[in-house]
Amino acid sequence: MLENLPRGIESIARFMRTAATAWSLQHRESPALHVHLLGPTEIDAAVTLQERISAEIVQRTDRYGVLLLCEHPNGVTIGRDGSAADLHLDREELQSRGIPVRWLRRGGGTWVHHPGQIVAYLVAPLDRLGLTVPQFQESLRQSLIDLGREQKLLLAPEDDSAGLAARCGTVGFIGAGVNEQVSQFGGCLNVSVPRAALNVVSWGNDVRPSSVAAERMRPTTMAALRESWIRHLAVRCGYDRYHVWTGHPAMRRTTRRMYVVTHSEHS
Fold it and tell me: Between 20 and 30 A from 262 (CA), which of 19, 43, 55, 115?
């Protein structure tokens, strides 16, 4: 059975079958947010890992939460507010470019994933954090706004429920899910994604996607933005402490060919 799974998911499946796991905090109380910097990660592998962590948190009684931060290879995900009509390229063209399309059980619309984007999966017990679903969604949005102000972005004056709206467009998007009072998914932040890649889909009615690099008009490091988002997410969700780890024991590094969109295409 396992030999038919993609390598990233296969490693997680093997990990899930292990009765005793060294990293698990199942029997240790933890009030902290545990952050894992995964690096380049396939969409399916990240979602599978999220489901594993969510199942553990459901069985716990403390405030233990997990934040997965990663970069996805080229791909498109469609949330509850999106549809196939949001795709600006037909399926054959997307397939020829190695751009998979996935439907996910998250809020938000249709998103493009591309190197230069930070994707957040926040798995946390909302009831034990004292958060309702609307409050959690607002916490996600406010964490992006906090980041934007700290980075001195010129923010749009109007309220943007999609995420973080700046001078030239929206750079951060939120899209969460909740299952058994445990949050899933979270959002994405376009750091240095080429505009041609962003324009592969419609991100929502009257939503113009942009990136932090385009707004600041100068190079922006992923590390600085990751650190800022972690810090503000922890505070907004009620965590006094957080611990940062590189990678995750359930993940094994895999590679595949990536199609990188240049500025000259679909501009």
Answer: 43
pLDDT tens for 158-179 read 665 679 999 889 999 999 999 9
- For 228, the token pair is 């800022």
Closest residue by Cα to residue 219 from 116, 96, 112, 85: 116
Query: Are the C-beta atoms of 174 and 122 separated by less than 8 Å?
Result: no
Q: Does domain 2-18+29-246 have CATH number 3.40.190.10?
A: no
Six-digit token pair at 137?
């969604």
Q: 122 and 176 in contact (C-beta within 8 Å)?
A: yes
Cα–Cα distance, 66 to 140 (Å, whole number)? 14
SS3 89: coil
Q: What are phi and psi of 187, to 5 degrees?
A: 180, 180
Rounded to whole angstroms, how far apart are CA atoms 139 and 144? 9
- Residue 35 backbone phi and psi in degrees, to 5: -105, 130
Q: pLDDT (tens digit, 9 = 90+) per residue, 62-102?
A: 999 999 999 999 999 999 999 999 999 998 999 999 999 99
SS3 171: strand
State the DSSP code for 216: H
Q: What pTM, to 2 d.p., does this model score?
A: 0.85
Quote the CA–CA distance of 37 and 263 in Å, as a whole number. Answer: 28
